[in-house]
Amino acid sequence: MNKDFAQKAYEKLEMARRNHERLKLMIANDARTGEEVMILMVGTRPIARILQEPNDLEPNFKKTELVAPMWERASKLDERQSVQDFDQDELTVTAVIDGHLKSVGL
Questions:
Q1: How many domains does the chain have?
Q2: Which is it for strands 45-49 and 23-29: parallel, antiparallel or unpaired?
Q3: Is 15 exposed, middle or buried (0-12, 13-18, 19+ CB in 10 A)?
Q4: How many CA atoms, within 13 angstroms, populate the side-chain half-sphere of residue 85?
Q5: How is residue 1 annotated by DSSP?
Q6: Concatenated DSSP letters for 41-73?
């Protein structure tokens, strides 16, 4: 698993958790395809694209069990709260994610 992607995913999850009252769905245009899509927003920040065909995905529960403790530990150490706070790197979180991924071989 790519460390940068894992950290971005963690940050999107934490933005949603810590700002849940600002969550909303919006219609957006995909610049690459021209399609209209649905996205999940925290305030004015897009954090996820809503899947139209989620049944095409097969969750990997084993790998998720390996990384879930990493996200929980990072969450406890992360002092960022607002969406804008997440624009700044949190070196402690980066170290937790990098170290955990290496320790479990991902």
A1: 1
A2: unpaired
A3: buried
A4: 13
A5: -
A6: EETTEEEEEPPS-GGG----HHHHHHHHHHHHH
Query: What is the chain's alpha carbon radius of gyration, rounded to the nearest angstrom?
Result: 15
Instruction: Classify each residue of 61-73 as buried b or exposed e, where b means 16 or more C-beta atoms within 10 Å of its C-beta.
Output: eeeeebbeebbeb
* Residue ranges making up the domain that contains 98: 3-103
Residue 38 pairs with which residues in a beta bridge?
Answer: 27
Strand partners, 24: 41
Give the model confidence (pLDDT) of 14-50 as tens digits.
Answer: 999 999 999 999 999 999 999 999 999 999 999 999 9
pTM, entire model = 0.86
Q: If you ran DSSP here, which 8-state letter would residue 41 be given?
A: E
